């Protein structure tokens, strides 16, 4: 297995996209999986490396990356040393970042013998589930899309709820990270960007218009994104597959850091379901 970590991609917002690839270097074109992390997430969180290795072993060209404004840096891609970048993140930038990764696959000659550009699949965890669904609906290069503990509506969660007038007046609101104890800023531009692009950023619209196979996976013990959001996504889509994993929490019974040398049984089941779905 070939693992190349911390590849630096440039994109239009002038922040690097730090990217990892996992694959078997045998000059055989492989289906591509691009994985998008969620809110307060990063590519090296918990068991994501082990998940990437499992997909690589199953015959995929697996890519995971940090969104350019997720709060990480090239020097420290884990956690959130750059809170200014975090505060200036928004959904549109994350969609732009994902597009930059897809474009890189198409333009890069370095891996062209090991990946199949006609078979690009997106996985998004939590908030990333909405990002991949919106992108899959608008980008014809995508073959299949997977929402992993994904959200169903951006407008009713996170920074967009609460006192908007106070947010506008102050210019910033803060959310505590329960693990790092940082007070993480959200600048008012987040709200302005959402309102300016609200139709595009409506997950219901994207799901309803999807023309490609769509897999929804959710744990029934998820306390971060309620399981009814998975049922809502499934209802909006005419042809989605819904898989509920019994006893699984929001991160499929893993945590950060993850010191075990194997994924949890719940995440193993996630990998099996996605593998079968892509190979259908």
TrEMBL record:
AB hydrolase-1 domain boundaries: 31-150
Top-level lineage group: Bacteria
Signal peptide extent: none
Gene3D superfamilies: alpha/beta hydrolase
UniProt keyword list: Hydrolase
One GO molecular-function entry: hydrolase activity
Identification of the protein by name: Alpha/beta hydrolase family protein
Species, as recorded: Jejuia pallidilutea
């Amino acid at each position: 297995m070939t693992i190349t970590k911390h590849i630096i991609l440039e994109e239009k917002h002038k922040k690097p996209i730090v990217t990892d690839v996992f694959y078997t270097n045998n000059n055989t074109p492989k289906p591509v999986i691009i994985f998008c992390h969620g809110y307060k997430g990063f590519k090296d969180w918990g068991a994501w490396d082990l998940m990437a290795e499992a997909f690589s072993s199953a015959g995929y060209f697996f890519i995971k990356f940090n969104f350019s404004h997720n709060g990480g840096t090239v020097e420290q891609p884990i956690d959130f040393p750059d809170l200014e970048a975090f505060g200036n993140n928004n959904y549109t930038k994350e969609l732009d970042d994902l597009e930059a990764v897809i474009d890189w696959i198409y333009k890069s000659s370095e891996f062209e013998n090991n990946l199949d550009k006609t078979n690009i699949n997106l996985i998004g965890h939590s908030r990333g589930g909405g990002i991949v669904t919106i992108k899959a609906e608008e980008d014809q290069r995508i073959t299949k899309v997977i929402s992993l503990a994904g959200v169903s509506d951006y407008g009713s969660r996170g920074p967009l709820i609460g006192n908007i007038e106070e947010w506008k007046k102050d210019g910033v609101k803060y959310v505590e990270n329960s693990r790092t104890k940082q007070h993480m800023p959200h600048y008012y531009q987040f709200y302005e960007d959402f309102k300016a692009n609200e139709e595009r950023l409506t997950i219901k619209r994207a799901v309803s218009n999807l023309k490609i196979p769509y897999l929804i996976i959710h744990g029934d013990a998820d306390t971060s994104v309620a399981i009814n959001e998975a049922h809502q996504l499934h209802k909006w889509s005419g042809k989605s597959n819904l898989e509920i994993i019994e006893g699984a929490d929001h991160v499929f019974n893993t945590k950060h850091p993850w010191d075990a040398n194997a994924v949890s049984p719940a995440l193993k089941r996630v990998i099996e379901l996605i593998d079968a779905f892509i190979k259908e």
